[in-house]
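Q: Here's a chain of 209 amino acids. Please give me its 3D structure as tokens.
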Amino acid sequence: STNSQTRIRLLNAAGAVFAQHGYQGATVRRICSRAHANVSAVAYYFVSKEALYEQAIRYSGRYAAERFPLEDLSDLASKDPEAALARFVETLLRRLLDRGRPAWHGRLMARELAEPTKAFPVVVEEVARPMLDVLSNIVSHLCNTPPDSGRTWLCAASIFGQCTFHRNARSLTAALRPKSPGDNIEALTRHITQFSLHGLRHLDSERNQ
């Protein structure tokens, strides 16, 4: 419908403006102008600039989750945790390195992580926690540690960090190592999975000595 099209146009325009200017620097007028919408459209569809910002964050998170679903890996984690880890790493990399995704998605998330606003709980609860819960469950099966233990958290954070590096340092990697795997998801998935499994096994054998 025309209503939903206008709403999506506003979300995309808002995401791009917020990503470029930050929450404080973005104006409703600039957002509506970019969306080719009446200046009262934000109030009509979203009530306020603050609510629109929160919806733009949510929209970005959902876009990635729907495009590259991280299906419930709990069954696979209990049967074959190594395969579950590889599936998780591949899915996360596809989300992070998706060339078809509007550029503002990654920029807006990066800005929100660097300068949290009132919408930060949305990033924590709806974007980050579901992914880390899945990963912690996989690590828990690989290391025989409780999913909520400090050791599991540090291991999960290390794996997550290896994946996000290739998104956050994309331009730096291209400059330093032009022939690096870059966006080769299969090569990166193989390396991160193998590297992580070796590290987890080593930690486990150290603990059992």
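Q: Can you summarize the key feature?
A: The chain has a mean pLDDT of 92.
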